[in-house]
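Explain this fold:

***
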Amino acid sequence: MKNHRIYLGLALFFFLLLLIGRAGKPELYAGPEALLFGWEQGPAYTFPAIARAFGESAQSVLGSALWAFRFPVLFLALGLLLLISSLGRVLFGESRKNLLLVVLMSSFGLQFVSWQFSGDLWLLTALIGYGLLTLLYLKRRAWEQLLGSLLFLALALWIAWLPALVASLVFWLMLRFFHPFGKCLTAWYPLLLWLGSLGLGLWAYLPYEPAVFFLALPWHGARATFPEFLEVFTGKGHWGLGPYLLVQLAALLPWFGFLAAGLYELFVNLRRGEEMSLVATSFLLAGFLSFGLLPQWVFALLIARQLEGYVQKNYPYENLVKGFAILELVLSFALVFVAVFLGAMAGSGGFGSLAWKGLLWWGPSVVGVLGLFMKKPGMYIGGPLFAAFLGSLTV
C-alpha cells in the first residue's frame, strides 16, 4: 500500500506525544508504582529486580519524581515497536508491518500501559520476541533465532512466570502439532525452562504479583492447589473472561470494521490450513489463556491485512467492514451522548469537556466511514488513527 510510511510517521509522532505527556501525571493514574512508593496499601512489591533497577537508576539521575521512575518504560515501549519492526519486516513484509505498527500504537490498551511501570509491557515485549523469533526459526533453522527465542522466553518467565508459562506453552503446542515444520520445535531446552519455571514458581523463587499488572492471571501466592489454579481462569476477584474479551475489543474500537473482517477471514483461512492464520490463532489463544495483552498485537496484524486488501479488486469483505464500521459509529455516538447526559443530570462539572473529547473521537470516525465508501485509504486509515489519538491526547 502506498503512503504506509506516512501513516507510520503520524502514529509514531502522536504516540511519542502521548507517552511524554502522560508519564509525568501521577494525578491521572498512579498505577502499580503506588505500591512501591507507599501511596496505597497493598501486597509487597515483588516485581523483578532488573525492572525496578531501571526505574531507580533513572531517578538517581533525573530526580525522585514519578516521571523519572517511569522514564525507562518509555524506551521499552519504543523498543517493542523496534522489535516488531525488525522481525515483522521479514515475516509480514514492509507495508503490512508498518500498518500493523500504526494500528498497534493506536490501541488504547498499549497506550495505557506504555507510560505505567506495570508488568504488562515487559511481559508483552518478551512474549512477542519469543513468538516472532520462534517463527523465524521455523523458516530459517538458524541457531541465532533459536537462542534469541529462548532468551526472550527466559525473560518472560522471570517477569511473570505463570502467565508466561501458560502463553508460551500454548503457543509452542499449537505450532508443534499443527504447523508444517512444527516437528523441529521438539527439543529438551525449552522443556527445561518450562519445568524449571513451574517448579521455582510454585516454590515462590520466581516473583509474580498480579497487583503490578493491569491484565494478568489473578493468582497470588505459592504452592497453589489444583482448585486454586482453576480459579485463575474464572477471574474470581479479578478479570473474568467476558470483561477481559470486551476490553481487548474496545481497545481497538476505531478499527472495529476491519477487525470484524479480520476475525472472520481468520476463521475461514484457519479451516483451509493457512499458515499465517495458524500463527495468529496460536498467539490469540496464548493471550486469552494468560489474560495478557498479546491479543492486541494479533488484532493489529489482522486489521493491517484488511487495510492492505480493502482497495484491491474483488475484496470479499467490503460490506462486512462497512457494516461494523457504521455500528461502531452509532455505538460511539450513543456512549458519548449517554455520558454527557448523565453528567449533566447529575450536575457534575466537566460534561462539556467530555462532549468535546467525544467529538474529537466521533468526528474522525465519520471521516473514516466516508473513506470506506469513497475507497480512499487516507480517510479510512487516517480517520480511525486520529480518532484513537485525539481523545487520548486530551486526557
Remarks:
- The chain is about 75% helix and 0% strand.
- The chain has a mean pLDDT of 82.
- The CA atoms of residues 87 and 132 lie 7 Å apart.
- Residues 318-346 form the longest helix (29 residues).
